[in-house]
Specification:
This protein has 255 residues and is an alpha/beta fold. The protein has one domain: NAD(P)-binding Rossmann-like Domain (Rossmann fold), CATH 3.40.50.720. The protein contains eight helices and nine strands. The longest helix has 22 residues.
């Protein structure tokens, strides 16, 4: 089956100025999609030349709302069908001192990775065409608790639950036929992961991640996790008794 689309098929991707979002924008464009790239850096967005771009900050609800209005007008003007929305934008910060818990850091991460997604869903979900697919960026970090990941892991675990719940409510409304994909990458080579100060086994490139997301969304998979050899190991480890998990993973927190 060909994954190429007609020129009237559009995909909206947030966080399209770097990493997985940037690679996905280019990959979708190469497959014939009209890409609506979203982000804060207008210079990068304008240079993509993949279709259209919307400049806004996902953490600013009014900017997201205005982007939704602009999107609706653009789709109508160009007679495009919005067949996919990928809410990829996010951040990662770690809690380095759990006793002196950084509540402001926690709030920043939750706001960007979770609360902002809610505003994006409000702005963009109603514009998905019948048979469309919504992609939410979670993480394979949700399969296990990891040291220092209280903020990041909590935000992504919430995204996974959000996706499961959305899927139920959308399934109860078959007239719209909108599917949900929860995307759970392992380690991907991006500017965000480049800041990590720990080993990242089985890391793949952003281009490889983009291809896996593209295929999973096309197949309307609920959970898109990759690379499989890494994510399956995490899934298996999650079945271990809690005492063993704590011993295994807490040791990794000692520097």
């Amino acid at each position: 089956m060909s994954h190429h689309q007609s020129s009237s098929s559009a995909v909206l991707i947030t966080g399209a100025t770097s990493g997985i979002g940037l690679a996905s924008a280019k990959f979708y464009a190469a497959k014939g999609f009209h890409v609506i790239a979203c982000g804060r850096n207008e210079t990068v967005l304008a240079g993509l030349n993949v279709g259209h771009f919307l400049t806004f900050d996902i953490t600013q609800p009014e900017q997201v709302n205005q982007a939704g209005i602009a999107l609706k007008q653009y789709l109508a003007d160009k007679q495009l069908q919005l067949t996919q929305v990928i809410l990829n934008a996010g951040t990662c910060e770690y809690i380095d001192d759990v006793i002196e818990f950084d509540a402001m850091l926690f709030s920043r991460v939750i706001t960007t990775n979770l609360i902002a997604v809610g505003h994006c869903i409000r702005a963009f979900l109603p514009q998905l065409t019948k048979g469309g697919q919504l992609g939410l960026m979670s993480s394979s970090a949700t399969y296990l608790p990891f040291p220092r990941a209280e903020a990041y892991g909590a935000s992504k675990a919430a995204i996974s639950y959000l996706g499961r719940s959305l899927r139920l409510d959308l399934a109860a409304n078959p007239s719209v036929d909108i599917g949900v994909s929860v995307i759970c990458p392992g380690f991907v080579d991006t500017p965000l992961t480049a800041k990590n100060d720990f080993a990242m086994p089985m890391q793949i490139s952003s281009d490889q991640a983009a291809e896996r997301i593209f295929k999973g969304m096309a197949q309307r998979k609920f959970e898109i996790h990759f690379p499989k050899r890494f994510t399956l190991i995490l899934k298996c480890l999650s079945w271990l008794p809690e005492k063993i998990l704590i011993k295994l993973l807490a040791d990794k927190a000692v520097k």
